[in-house]
Amino acid sequence: MLTAGRDATPAQTPRSAHRIGSAAWATATPRGPSGRNELAASTRREEGPHVATNEQAAGDTHQPLEPALDAPEPDHEGPDLRSLVNPDVDPEDLLPNLEPVQLLDREGMFHEHDSYPLDLKGEDLRRLYRHMVVARRVDQEAINLQRQGQLGVYASCRGQEAAQVGSAYALADHDWIFPSYRELAAGITRGIDTAATLHLYRGTWLSDHDPHEFNFALMTIPIGTQTLHGVGFAMGARLDDNPIVALIYFGDGATSEGDTNEALNFAGVFQAPCVFYCQNNQYAISVPLSKQTHAPSIAHKGVGYGMPGRRLDGNDVLASYAVTKWAVERARAGDGPTLIEALTYRMEAHTTSDDATRYRAQEELEYWATFDPISRMETFLKRRDLWEDAFADDVAEQARQQAEHVRKQIYDAPHPDPLELFEHVYVEPPPHLQRQREQLRAELEAAEER
Ligand SMILES: Cc1ncc(C[n+]2csc(CCOP(=O)(O)OP(=O)(O)O)c2C)c(N)n1
């Protein structure tokens, strides 16, 4: 804070304070009923911006300071400094509750929520459970395949099944998903062949599902890129009068990226029909949430972009579904985007290349294990009489078959020619890429001769 007028010499006073020191400051200041400059008067009494005269700004330290109160009165009203950019947007409406929305507590008890009613039938509830179980089994298989050298690397979604399955289930078929690299469970909810999703981790240059068949964009490795793709897509759909909503997944780490901030701001300004779904799994590789933001929560950031922020228990599949459904309906009705923060936890390391024991404690892991989304849903289904042994056996068998399918597909997948890496990027490859291609070709030939 600058110190008030009288003791500050021009040499101590920042340039900006001089600029606002005289008529300009007085012009932009609210006036009281008497027409007097109320704010300037109060800054004289309390600590506030330094109000220097032009003479003082010019360096004449002998001149007594003239307070802005005595500056010539402009003959027109200045702007109201308290005015909002969008007076029809009430910040209170955008603010999230710090208490996350939860429909299913840790003991599997259901609690109705007035703002987020649950409109699911028994078959839907069972399907949510089924997707989560299959995702967890395939996820484990992917880790095994990486350990066997069949995948180059893998980023597990264990612990995040509820966040992904619940939110993806809230979409209509014609809506689109823009994932990062961790959304195996969302892909399963969309009906994508799990083996196709995993090809990305074989180090091939292509993912292996048709985005247009499943309305599920290809997985994105650069952090935050998909947020821009999703917003652009949503805007395009709106211009086409197509009632598509884009659901965009990203992590807490992605909120520190320029791309994500640009996407959020653009979506807010143009009220794009999209839902930003942040899976706050507490870490960006080894960087904890406290190093990503000084905001009270990630959901609170929505206010700055002019969109509501909402927090939910990310290990509660029903809360994830109900809040996302609400946000999707808002977007479809033309009421603009929402920023959802799902509080969850990444149970495995960041990827199979990471040693999570170096930056987080075993007790933390054990604590979060007590929030397990699958066992919570199992208890709930039992309480609701939606559980029979035959159902449980069927789900377990489907999960086993999926794991076997993935294993077989990945084992049998052809090894692509490494030189394909350079294809399909440019019509005319630039010289540096041509040189790299030649270098790789020579190395491959030399390796074959050995
Ligand atoms: C633009 C960019 N910068 C850095 C990286 C390296 N990187 C890979 S994952 C990751 C952390 C991402 O954390 P978060 O967004 O929280 O997602 P999570 O992995 O936890 O799901 C980083 C920095 C990258 N892939 N892309």
Shape: globular
Order of helices and strands: HHHHHHHEHHHHEHEEEHEHEHHHH
Low-confidence stretches: 1-62
* Structural class by helix and strand composition: alpha/beta
Rg = 28 Å
Instruction: For the largest sheet, list the strands in their spatial order.
Output: 1-2-3-7-6
Please estimate the helix content: 40-55%
User: What separation lies between the terminal Cα atoms?
Assistant: 71 Å
- Taken as a percent bin, the fraction of beta residues is 5-15%
Oligomer state equals: single chain
Features:
globular; 450 residues; 7% strand; two-stranded antiparallel ribbon; alpha/beta; disordered N terminus; 5-stranded parallel sheet
Structure description:
- With 450 residues, this protein is of the alpha/beta class.
- The chain is 42% helix and 7% strand.
- Helix 6 packs parallel to helix 17 (389-412).
- Bound molecules: thiamine diphosphate.
- Thiamine diphosphate (TPP) is lined by residues 182, 221-223, 250-254, 281, 283-285, 346, 350.
